Structures are given as C-alpha cells and as structure tokens.
Amino acid sequence: CQFQVPNTNANTSLRLQSHLPRPTNASFNVDSFFTSLSTCRFGRFLIWSPRLPSTHDVVSHNFSELPVGSVCVADVQFKGKGRSANVWESPPGCLMFSFTLQMEDGRIVPLVQYIASLALTEAIKDLCFNNGLPQLGIKIKWPNDLYLNGFKVGGVLCTSTYKSKKFNISVGIGLNVDNKQPTTCLNARLQQIASMSCQLRKEDILASFFDKFENFFDQFLSQGFKPLEELYYQTWLHSGQRVIVQDTREGQTVENAATIQGLTSSGYLLAIGDDGQMCELHPDGNRSFQGFLLSFSFRGETWDEFALLTGDGPIPDSM
Amino acid sequence: MSSRSVITHSVAAKAQLNNASIGEASSKSEASAKETKNGKPSSESISTPVATEESISEFITQVAGLIKLVDSRDIVELQMKQHDCELLIRKKEAISQPTPPPMYMMQAPSTPTAPPQASPPASLALAAPAPTTSPAPAPPAAKSSVPPLKSPMSGTFYRSPAPNSPPFVKVGDKVQKGQVVCIIEAMKLMNEIEADQAGTVVEVVAEDGKPVSLDTPLFVIQP
C-alpha cells in the first residue's frame, strides 16, 4: 500500500496529527473539526495539508488505500479541479475538501452531487440557525454550483471510477467562506446583512456538512431522491424558470421557450415547452454534441449549454 | 479486416455507383438476373459501349471507395446492381468456412444480406424479396460469444479523456483488467470505466459522444 500525492514535485512529508506544529489561525483546526463531528462513516479519517495541488487527486488516486468516507482538506490548493481541464483557484479563505464514497446503482450515481449540494446548503442553514445568525439563502444552480446573492460561491465536482461492479466516487467541494475577492463570500455577506462580527468557521461547516450528508445519503440509498426532492426544489434556482431551448440541427437554429418543472427520475431537468410538450434537458458537460446543441438563457444571460436527448421534446420533427 | 470483392461482368462506360440502390436484390432475383444475362451474353456486350481507360479508373476508384465504406461499417455484405453492372462486396465474416467458389450465385450465407429481415431464421429467409420496412435493422449478431462490456449507467460515451486527445483504446489494443477504456459522463459527473477483464479490444460498439443507456454494450473485449 502506497500513498501518492499526485502532481507535485515538491518534497512532501506525512505526519500524524500529534506530531504537527501548532496550527496557525488561518489553517484548518483538526481538533475543532473532530469535536463538532458526529458521523459514523464520513469524515472520520481526515488528511489535512497546508498546501496541496488538489485534494480531489489525493482521494481519487488513493481511493483503494483509504477507508471509504475519508476526507482530504487543504488550506491552499494550487491545482484544484474544475470541469474538464478547468483549474479552480483556491486562495486562503476557501474551504476545500474531497471525500470518498461507494455506490452500486448506476441509475442514481449522478444524483449524488445533488445530495452533496443539498447537504452543504442545509449545513450552512443549520449553523446560521444554531448560532443565531440570519439565513444566508445559498442556492443551488443545477447541476453543481452554489450561489449567494447572485454570485457563485461554491461548487461540487464528482468523479467516479467503475471498478469491480462498484462506483468509486470522489466528491470534491470548494466553498468561499472567507475570501471575498473578486465577488463575495459567506462571511462578507453575513457581515453585510447582520452587522455582527460572528463568522462561520470552516471546521464547523465541514463537520455540519458530513452530519447532513451522512443522513441524506442513507435516505438516498434506501429510498432514492424522492424524500429529498421537495427540499431540493426549495433550494435550487430554477423552479418555474423560463428558458430558451435552442436547437441547432443541420445548420438551422430553432428556438423554443420552455419552463422548468423540476427533475426527471434520472435527475435531468424536466421542462415543459410552450407547445405543452415535456422534455428532458441535459448539460453538455463542456463538450459539444454534434447536431444536438442547445443553449439555455437563464434570466436573459446565456449561462450554459444544454443538450436535449429525448426526441419528444419541443423540437421540430426534423429528426 | 479483409474484404474480398467479386466484380462480375464487364464495366459499363460510366458506372454510376453513387446512385445505385444498395442491397436491393435478394439472391433469388440475383440468380434469375444472372440467368437472363447468361442467356444472351453476346448481344448485351455488344450494346455496351467500350470502356475507356478513364472510365475504368473512375470505376475502380468508386469501387475502392465502396470497399472502404463497407470495411468501416457494420456491413458484412454489399450488393449493387445498375444497368449491366453488378458488384458484390463481402467481408470475411460473411463467407462460410469452406472458401466458396468465386461466383456470387452460391447459397445464401448464414449471415443475412444487407437489409436483414427482422429476425432471420437461419434457413430460407431469403425466399421472399419483400422490401423490409423496419428502418433500424437489428445490430448484427455479436462477432463472438464474448459478452460485451456494458455501460453501468446512462450518460454520454466518450472514448478519449478530453476532446482532442487520443482514445483510451482502439480496436486491436490489448487491455489489462482495471485499465480505463472510456468515460461515461452524466450531468457533469465523469465516470471512468475500467476493463473488467484482460484481453484484446475486438469491437468498439458505442459511438463516441453519443448517449448510452444502462446496459448498452460499449466494447467487445476478447479474453
């Protein structure tokens, strides 16, 4: 068994927590985290580093060497993973962590990122409530971003490897807790609306996240997404949202207006076209679909591209 | 893959292969056509304009293009007829064990011809030259009895790790158990699929960038 730290040429040393130098104020306080944690499986094995290329790489490259549910936290990440080859920059002040889990049912695997997003928004809700703070109102932008007051403050990125009939999933999360450059962060917003100096701490957010996640994940495995769907709709940005579905096919672009209804059973966006037809909308994952490229306008801005898979949506019958 | 083409009859001045209907003839009508021709060979060849060198080379080019097409697709046999020109291209898979005589009037091979009947019984399915209406012919029977590697989830099938990088594996590659062979992406979740056994990739069944469902065959890996 060998533990690898990928993408780094620098010298690394591995130490037990009892042998660490006293943490500075800015760094993650491991003791404080474990004091708050009350889970059975998730977050019980923790790897902390002051500086890492990517927490995601640490857990995904060492998946089989680590107990399922292990988490890696870094104060600074310099090669964080975004979608495709995008790099997620993470200065101090961000909570960045990745953890592992296993699933067997491929039909619900993609929905695990909704569980993670929801666990994070609910964790922050709980923390604010328990500390007598006003609610921040963090929202989920489907499928995997977190928004606060119109700005992106976080994201969830999952990768998976299907091995020996199991999905080995690494969930990576970045959340802007203290770094308000260039837009906003949780604590800056708290100060704005509460004019108090009470701050959310990364350790508490992480511990609360795992409490929520473990609970949601158990429900999800036994009953699917249904029990959490209502809560998810309360938290996401898209209910009743008007979108333009742009269908480019054989050089011709047709635009159709549609309204988002919710999620389909497989976790894609369910929309109803103005012609009354239901359709399922897919994100393009940063890669173009030939001939099936659609784009969405969210509130007048084109934010993302989606592809329509089903043939029975509000698209011309040129198929 | 080896293709063997059997070109019968002399070349007409301009073989308009592009317009020729594909796989129209069943072996029965094919046979009768041949008989007719055999009946009056001389008159027909007289009426045929003499082939120029140019037209022959054009014809060869067109045939070469067709062979390439057949070779690159899931077609085991292609037969075309236009005017007095007939062309039959058959892949090795379509030819039964004892090398058949080099004429195309032989018994129907066990593999169905180009437009297969919905479920071809091995025997005399070719008796009726009924035009098949089913638009999507069932995929040809697997080349071997090896069960394919199937998709464990629905999503989009990607053969390469990034849009402009080479594929993880291609036909003919040897793979190890646990080697990543493709990505299935669903809602931005990238899921690497590992080979469940060591072997040689003999077929890439799914198409790059296209949606796949749970249990859609992706690859055939011959142990």
From TrEMBL, chain A:
Name of this protein: BPL/LPL catalytic domain-containing protein
A Pfam family hit: BPL_LplA_LipB
Annotated BPL/LPL catalytic domain residues: 31-221
Keyword field: Ligase
UniProt cross-references to PROSITE patterns, sorted A to Z: BPL_LPL_CATALYTIC
CDD domains given in the database record: BPL
GO cellular component, one term: cytoplasm
InterPro entries from the UniProt entry: aa-tRNA-synth_II/BPL/LPL (IPR045864), Biotin_CoA_COase_ligase (IPR004408), BPL_C (IPR003142), BPL_LPL_catalytic (IPR004143)
PANTHER family attached to this UniProt entry: BIOTIN PROTEIN LIGASE, BIOTIN--PROTEIN LIGASE
Keyword NADP on entry: no
GO molecular function term, any single one: biotin--[biotin carboxyl-carrier protein] ligase activity
Domain of life: Eukaryota
Protein family (similarity comment): Belongs to the biotin--protein ligase family.
Signal peptide start-end: none
Automatic annotation (TrEMBL), chain B:
Signal peptide residues on this chain, from the entry's feature table: none
Location within or outside the cell: Plastid, Chloroplast
Low complexity composition-biased segments: 120-131, 141-152
Limits of the Lipoyl-binding domain: 141-222
InterPro entries xref list: 2-oxoacid_dehydrogenase, AcCoA_biotinCC, Biotin_BS, Biotin_lipoyl, Single_hybrid_motif
Region described as Disordered: 17-51, 107-155
Pathway: Lipid metabolism; fatty acid biosynthesis
Gene Ontology terms, MF aspect: acetyl-CoA carboxylase activity
Residues spanning the membrane: none
UniProt keyword list: Biotin, Chloroplast, Fatty acid biosynthesis, Fatty acid metabolism, Lipid biosynthesis, Lipid metabolism, Plastid
Residue runs in coiled coils: none
Main localization, broad class: plastid
Keyword Heme: no
CDD domains: biotinyl_domain (cd06850)
Pfam family of the protein (one): Biotin_lipoyl
Polar residues composition-biased segments: 39-50
GO (cellular component) term, any one: acetyl-CoA carboxylase complex
Function: This protein is a component of the acetyl coenzyme A carboxylase complex; first, biotin carboxylase catalyzes the carboxylation of the carrier protein and then the transcarboxylase transfers the carboxyl group to form malonyl-CoA.
NCBIfam families, A to Z: BCCP (TIGR00531)
Record protein name field: Biotin carboxyl carrier protein of acetyl-CoA carboxylase
Organism annotation: Chenopodium quinoa (Quinoa)
